[in-house]
Design brief:
It is built from 15 helices and 14 strands. With 400 residues, it is of the alpha/beta class. Keywords: Glycosyltransferase, Transferase.
Length: 400
């Protein structure tokens, strides 16, 4: 099958301004998995640097860089104005020698470009939002910083797609509240590379005291402040926060400064370490170094971090929401607490840190759960079945 994956951003690991790095890794892994299953896959992303080639073959699929907008990194808000040009470029490309049997948009801007490209064709659209503006706004409140156009354009995009792919049960519910029929929503959780994330292997250096690890971007709404307040109740344990800019640039990072000031005000500055950015290929060593991985964002459509930690045999304490609630089975692979309940978070972390037998049991169950239910092979197979279903039921789609 010919599959066109459309992402309006380029690889955000080179610069700020795009979707989270984990989102791009997800798209690239989906492309590689589908190519490995024998499909003809092309991934479209915006060309954002003049020295980048127009095409590149990666892991069996073709990356085509679309020359729209400035050849530079731009924030998402500025990409909205490029959607029509992006869609026209795709339409012209697909009118030539190669056209997808299914177009799969990623993130809301990529989905809009795909919808524009196929509006006069019978090519069906599958859409993965990765996050939804209306839910982010509700959970983040004043910390929500997306463009004003995002929510109305996401609602318009919902009317244009054949099927939306949700990555958690919470996202399924949100998409149906936004107007999609349940039959038009497919739950396909992200996969985990179990060859990279597994219990056996090196661990990052650590002190003798127990380690609680947090892996997330250093941005408002990611919940590190809750962990800093909760660590006071844990006792003799260190909190290591991985994420944000490289360690040498943390001093000039506003969120890092605020977290350090919060730790000082709470009297736990000596227990909190900001480690900065860690290459994704080294994350497994950090997971293995932890006694517990804590996941406390205000919003999480997918459960990438808890699943990676679980694959490494580490129990997870997380907020009962989104992909975290789907990934973690309470009192089986870790513990779930209500979002924002700092006291419950601290008490739960303290009890688990002092329960070595419980951590051992949770860790073994976590590895089994990931290997049975969250491999990339399962994710690829689910998407393959979905593409075959929508391709059999081709109908013209409404332009967003």
């Amino acid at each position: 099958m010919r599959v066109g994956l459309v992402c309006a951003h380029a690889d955000p690991s080179r610069h700020a301004g795009g979707p989270p790095v984990g989102t791009h890794q997800h798209i690239a892994r989906v492309a590689a998995e589908l190519a490995g299953r024998g499909h003809d896959v092309r991934l479209y992303e915006r060309r954002d640097a003049p020295d980048l080639g127009a095409t590149e073959t990666v892991d069996g699929y073709l990356v085509e860089r679309v020359p729209v907008g400035p050849a530079a990194a731009v924030p998402t808000a500025e990409l909205v104005g490029c959607v029509a040009d992006y869609g026209r470029w795709l339409a012209d490309r697909w009118a030539d020698e190669w056209a997808p049997e299914v177009a799969h948009g990623h993130y809301w801007v990529g989905g809009l470009a795909a919808a524009h490209a196929v509006r006069e064709t019978d090519i069906p659209i599958v859409q993965t939002f990765h996050s939804l503006g209306v839910e982010q706004l509700r959970r983040l409140g004043a910390r929500y910083g997306a463009p004003d156009e995002r929510i109305p354009l996401e609602r318009a995009l919902i009317r244009a797609v054949d099927v939306a792919v949700a990555q958690s049960n919470d996202e399924v519910d949100e998409l149906t509240r936004m107007g999609l029929q349940r039959i038009s929503v497919a739950l396909v959780p992200p996969g985990v590379d179990t060859e990279q994330f597994h219990p056996d292997g090196e661990a990052a250096p650590r002190e003798a005291q127990p380690r609680i690890l947090s892996v997330s971007a250093l941005e408002p709404g990611h919940g590190q402040e809750d962990l800093i307040r909760a660590i006071r109740m844990v006792g003799d344990a260190e909190l290591v926060i991985v994420g944000g800019p490289p360690a040498e640039r943390l001093a000039g990072h506003a969120e890092a400064r605020q977290l350090r000031e919060l730790a000082e005000r709470n009297g736990v500055a000596d227990l909190v370490t900001l480690a900065g950015a860690v290459p994704h290929e080294q994350l497994a060593t950090w997971y293995r170094s932890a006694d517990v991985v804590a996941c406390t964002p205000r919003y999480a459509s997918a459960g990438r971090v808890p699943l990676e930690a679980m694959a490494c045999g580490v129990p997870v304490v997380g907020y009962a929401m989104g992909g975290i609630a789907d990934a973690v089975v309470d009192e089986v692979t870790g513990r779930l607490v209500q979002p924002g309940d700092v006291r419950a978070l601290g008490v739960t972390l303290r009890r688990l840190i002092t329960d070595s037998a419980g951590r051992f049991a949770y860790g073994h169950a976590a590895v089994d759960r990931v290997r049975c239910s969250y491999t990339w092979e399962r994710t690829g197979a689910a998407l393959e079945r979905l593409y075959e279903r929508v391709a059999r039921c081709r109908t013209p789609v409404e332009a967003a």
